[in-house]
Specification:
Blueprint: H1 2-26, H2 30-44, E1 48-58, E2 62-72, E3 75-89, H3 91-95, E4 99-107, E5 110-118, E6 127-138, H4 143-149, E7 154-166, E8 169-192, E9 195-210, E10 213-222, E11 227-235, E12 244-253, E13 259-267, E14 272-276
Antiparallel strand pairs: 1-2, 2-3, 3-4, 4-5, 5-6, 6-7, 7-8, 8-9, 9-10, 10-11, 11-12, 12-13, 13-14
Length: 277
């Protein structure tokens, strides 16, 4: 008898929760939340142009944003896009007195999963840490990357990233990026050794970020006709295309008896200059 009563009580509780979720879903103020998110983004990032189709509640508890596109004043065509972006709080972190958000983004044929942890449970300011894993990203679909590098690079991207810093001074933070890019092409602005583009099977990179600069500790490109290895630094600029390059490395040509040539790359990401030695 008691077991039957406990089951009935549990059933009523579950039914109540289901009804509450349904009511919240049906009565969710999607337009109001969408306008609020856009207004907050405009205040925090005045150079960004943000477009969101809809905002809906999600399960587990959180929100799901559909067709999110971010552009930038002066380069409105250089956009970042997510077909769907889900954001939900990290409940275990909240129980430990920390504010955290779990994010999942779908777009460009792939997926990004990450989280952001804030030191202050009542504020999005102050110290924070973030990490993300991404896979199956078709980079030729990304308009921002095409504009930033002034060329159409192709390939499938996977990797991971981490960052630590303060929300009000992101340029002073530190981070790491490891990625692999497979089966793609890197167009050249000017040909060398008869190549107008670099076709590759695989590109591996290990990059660290500190004080507004990228340190490339290892970048290797492997293809049937060419192998390349580079190291160096990139000093980031507000306009990503104007970031200054200081890199050096070597090229091997398997089809020419493994001929080896050293090189140095300077200039900017949008207009690099290569010198052979």
């Amino acid at each position: 008898m008691r077991l039957r009563m406990n089951r009935a009580i549990a059933g009523y509780i579950l039914a109540g929760i289901a009804m509450l979720v349904m009511i919240l879903y049906l009565r969710f103020p999607g337009e109001t939340v969408t306008d609020y998110v856009k207004a907050m983004a405009a205040v925090r990032y005045p150079r960004m142009l943000l477009s969101i189709d809809t905002v809906q509640p999600a399960i587990p508890p959180g929100v799901a944003l559909e067709n999110v596109t971010a552009g930038f004043r002066g380069h409105p065509e250089a956009t970042l896009h997510a077909d769907r972006l889900s954001v939900r709080p990290g409940w275990l972190s909240l129980l430990r007195g920390r504010l955290a958000f779990l994010l999942t983004a779908e777009g460009y044929g792939g997926e990004v999963r990450g989280r952001i942890d804030f030191a202050n449970i009542f504020s999005l300011q102050g110290p924070l840490s973030a990490e993300a894993n991404f896979r199956e990203i078709r980079i030729e679909k990304c308009a921002w990357l095409r504009d930033a590098l002034s060329r159409q690079i192709t390939g499938t991207l996977k990797g991971s990233a981490s960052f630590s810093g303060a929300a009000e001074a992101l340029n002073n933070g530190t981070g790491n990026l490891d990625f692999t890019l497979t089966n793609g092409t890197y167009p050249l602005l000017e040909s060398f050794f008869g190549f107008d583009r670099l076709d590759f099977n695989k590109v591996d990179a290990k990059i660290s970020f500190r004080n507004g600069a990228l340190k490339i500790t290892g970048l290797t490109l492997n293809g049937e006709k060419l192998r390349c290895s580079l190291k160096g630094n990139i000093l980031l600029a507000d306009d990503f295309r104007e970031s200054q390059i200081d890199m050096n490395g070597s090229i091997e040509l398997p089809m020419q008896g493994n001929k080896r040539v050293t090189l140095a790359i300077s200039g900017t990401l949008g207009n690099p200059k290569t010198r052979f030695m």
